[in-house]
Amino acid sequence: MKSKGKIWKFGDHVDTDLIIPARFLNVSDKNELAKNCFVDVKPDFARTVQPGDIIIAGINFGCGSSREHAPLAIKAAGISVIIAKSFARIFYRNAFNIGLPILESTEAADAFSEGDDVSVDLSSGEIADPDGARRFFAKPIPEFMREIIDAGGLVDYIRKKMAA
Amino acid sequence: MTIAMTITEKILASHAGKDSVSPGELIDVSVDLALANDITAPLAFRVFEELGPKDVFDPERIALVPDHFVPNKDIASAQQAKIMSEFASKHNIKHYFELGDSGIEHVILPEKGLVIPGDLVIGADSHTCTYGALGAFSAGVGSTDLGVILGTGRIWLKVPATIKLIYKGNLKPWVGGKDLILFTLGLIGVEGAVYETMEFAGEVIQGLSMDQRLTMANMAVEGGAKNGIFEPDDITRAYVEQRSERKGHYWASDPDAQYARVVEIDVDQIGPQVAAPHSPDNVFPVSEIGSVRLDQVVIGSCTNGRIEDLRVAAGILKGRSVARGTRLIVIPGSPRIYKEAIQEGIITTLLNAKAVISPPTCGPCLGGHMGVLADGEKAISTTNRNFIGRMGHPGSEVYLASPAVAAASAVLGKIASPDDI
Ligand code: SF4
Question: I need a surface site. Which of A36, A71, B1, B245 has the fewest CB within 10 A?
Answer without folding.
Answer: B1
